[in-house]
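Q: I'm building a small set of examples for a reading group on sequence design. Run inverse folding on the following structure and report the sequence directly after it, with nothing in between.
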């Protein structure tokens, strides 16, 4: 039993990440109720209550207040609960292994609920299948689930581009960043990043309603994703065209509207030997973005390739964490 405890204690981070990825692969997204959807509903309700001053300092103050109310309580509660469990394990040394296994399983389930690798794949395949069947209206319908741009008149190539861009960017937001922050800061830090990133998707718009209220949310998401974005670049780039991927991430990604998303997409597109970016219509206005990546124009087959790229990136990060923990035991 002592030997088993030592093994779990020594490789706990890698074990949790591996179990979370396994649960995600086997179970996918929760069918009836997803905690992030419930979180989003609470955040939307609070925003309606507090965001009544669209363009002044009050709106910024209430934005910080709202962020703190919806993000901080749960990680704080988990932090204190985990410390309570550790103290109980120390006081009851004969049950130390039981407490450790419980803690490991608890983290694994929470991390599984935070990441969304299988969900990303399912959403991407919902677009890929009708594209393969030539059913453009259905493909446009599902593309609208994945991106905020106008999808009513998108071509096959444009929908493929939108899907690949979303897959590579959300590969960071919903997968790699969560795994990375768990590895360096535990489930609390992973949860803070995921909730903050969810709020950025809801409040991080530069329009009259959210320009001030969502300012703190948008900037903090950029800060939280800065390091994990670079980790994602490495996990993508190591799969091929290493130097070109890193160079394009730095040169092209830094010019993109979203720094962290631009880096991830530029690196991923370079590995896939495709070009992303260009024009898209958002809320009736045409927006232009820089080219990301290099090579051929994106096609519908690249949707499947982008899924594989993100899946491999998550396994590469797991391998790095495992090797690091092995080296630290010697």
């Amino acid at each position: 039993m002592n030997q088993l405890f030592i093994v779990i204690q020594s490789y706990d981070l890698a074990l949790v990440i591996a179990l979370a990825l396994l649960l995600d692969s086997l179970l996918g997204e929760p069918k009836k109720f997803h905690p992030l959807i419930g979180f989003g509903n609470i955040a939307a309700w609070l925003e309606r209550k507090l965001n009544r001053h669209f363009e002044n300092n009050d709106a910024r103050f209430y934005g910080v207040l709202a962020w703190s109310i919806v993000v901080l309580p749960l990680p704080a509660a988990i932090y204190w609960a985990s410390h309570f469990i550790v103290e109980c394990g120390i006081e009851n040394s004969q049950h130390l292994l039981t407490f450790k296994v419980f803690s490991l399983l608890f983290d694994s389930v929470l991390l599984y609920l935070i990441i969304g690798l299988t969900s990303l794949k399912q959403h991407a395949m919902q677009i890929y299948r009708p594209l393969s069947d030539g059913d453009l209206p259905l493909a446009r319908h599902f593309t609208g689930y994945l991106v905020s741009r106008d999808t009513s008149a998108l071509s096959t190539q444009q929908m493929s581009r939108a899907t690949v861009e979303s897959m590579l960017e959300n590969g960071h937001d919903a997968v790699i960043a969560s795994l990375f922050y768990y590895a360096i800061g535990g489930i609390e830090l992973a949860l803070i990043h995921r909730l903050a990133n969810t709020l950025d998707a809801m409040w991080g718009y530069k329009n009259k309603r959210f320009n001030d209220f969502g300012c703190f949310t948008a900037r903090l998401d950029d800060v939280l994703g800065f390091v994990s974005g670079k980790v994602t670049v490495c996990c993508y780039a190591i799969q091929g065209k290493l130097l070109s991927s890193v160079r394009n991430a730095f040169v092209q990604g830094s010019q993109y509207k979203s720094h962290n998303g631009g880096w991830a997409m530029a690196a991923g597109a370079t590995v896939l030997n495709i070009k992303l970016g260009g024009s898209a219509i958002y809320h009736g206005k045409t927006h232009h973005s820089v080219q990301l990546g290099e090579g051929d124009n994106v096609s519908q087959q690249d949707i499947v390739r982008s899924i594989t790229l993100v899946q491999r990136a998550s396994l590469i990060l797991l391998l790095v964490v495992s090797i690091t923990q092995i080296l630290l035991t010697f």
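The radius of gyration is 21 Å.
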